[in-house]
Design a protein that fits this description.
Nucleotidyltransferase, domain 5, alpha/beta, 5-stranded mixed beta sheet
Length: 218
């Protein structure tokens, strides 16, 4: 039965070769290399809003994780210059004003730096799907495809951790599990940094990832 549910091993190889063949810029072939053992990259983006089709990235941060160590000395912090400016509403959230990002990088240069920093390492984040969708909108014109790395969602790891602690009855009735980031961090006994700062959010997601791996016995 497992063989029917899981794709055969050759399928992954075939998919990789297909993606490499259609890669728009061969300079980024390294993203398809085998990832370094026990290494990940935690990332976060700040944006002008939550619409992945129309809003823009204004800050990107990423930090490497090696084993159980968060390599804050090996981090990437980028400001990105948006094409349509920054609204007052978004400034209230991330505190980045238009003049703060006016000298930021163009988005295509920013994502190139990010891809070089990530390499082939799996990606870690909190609600990572949104960040990757925003990044892929900028990466697609450069590569003809999005980021190929494996993605690890911290909120999913936390959900699995809490679900294992529920009684059989609670599992049957689908007891609610609070996935708010502040709840997650406090429950794991981890320090809360100021939120809506790309580097702080990337570091906190990395802390949660390392703690959850330890609790799972990885």
């Amino acid at each position: 039965m497992a063989g029917l549910l899981s794709p055969p091993r050759w399928w992954g190889t075939l998919k990789r070769e297909w993606l490499l063949y259609h890669l728009g810029d061969p300079a980024f072939r390294f993203m398809f290399d085998p990832p370094p053992d026990q290494e990940w990259v935690s990332l976060d983006c700040e944006t002008t809003g939550l619409n992945v089709r129309t809003d823009e990235i204004i800050a990107i941060a990423a930090v490497r994780i090696v084993g159980n160590r968060i390599m804050t000395s090996e981090r990437l912090e980028l400001l990105v210059r948006p094409e349509r400016g920054v609204s007052a509403g978004s400034v209230r959230i991330h505190r980045l004003r238009e003049r703060d990002v006016a000298q930021g990088l163009p988005i295509d240069e920013a994502v190139k730096q990010l891809m070089r920093f990530i390499g082939s390492r799996p990606l870690v984040g909190y609600y990572l799907e949104f960040d990757v969708a925003m990044l892929n909108r900028a990466i697609w014109p450069l590569l003809g495809q999005g980021l190929p790395q494996t993605r690890i969602e911290v909120s999913s790891l936390y959900y699995d951790h809490k679900f294992r602690q529920l009684s059989p009855y609670q599992r049957q009735v689908h007891a609610d599990i609070d996935l708010h980031f502040s709840t997650l961090m406090q429950d794991l006994g981890l320090p809360l940094r100021e939120a809506h700062d790309a580097l702080n959010d990337a570091v906190m997601a990395a802390l949660a990832f390392v703690k959850l791996r330890q609790l799972r016995g990885d």
